[in-house]
Design goal:
By secondary structure, this protein is of the alpha+beta class. The protein has one domain. It contains 2 helices and 3 strands, in the order E-E-E-H-H. The protein has a 3-stranded antiparallel beta sheet with strand order 2-1-3, covered by helices on one side. Strand 1 and strand 2 form a beta hairpin. The two termini are 19 Å apart. The mean pLDDT is 88.
């Protein structure tokens, strides 16, 4: 992992950095935000295999990408700059990075 990012899970936000670990619980909406100037690279490991064959997993990922694209096109925000100025993610971003400007974010 490289860089800092914000984990959002279970209604909580936590700044993550190299060496931080988190267990993504099943059926728990979990996301990430990057309110810092540097890029963040994270590694996600899946513990339980959901498919029997590699191609099934690749197809699952492609389907996930299509679903996320449809959601974004339907207006579900995926970028910090798409959120209202008083959104909890924006407030938290400014609390951990006072110079954060969602309209300058990547």
């Amino acid at each position: 992992m490289r860089g800092r990012w914000v984990l959002c899970s279970g209604g909580r936000r936590q700044v993550m950095k190299p060496g931080s670990l988190f267990h993504f619980a099943a059926n728990t909406p979990t996301g990430y935000e990057v309110p810092f100037a540097e890029d963040a690279y994270i590694l996600i490991l899946k513990g339980k295999r959901l498919t029997k064959h590699e191609q099934e997993f690749i197809n699952y990922l492609k389907g996930l990408a299509r679903r996320l694209k449809r959601e974004q096109e339907a207006g579900i925000p995926y970028l910090l700059k798409e959120l209202p100025k008083d959104h909890p993610a924006i407030r938290f971003a400014r609390s951990v990075n006072p110079s954060f400007d969602p309209y300058q974010a990547k």
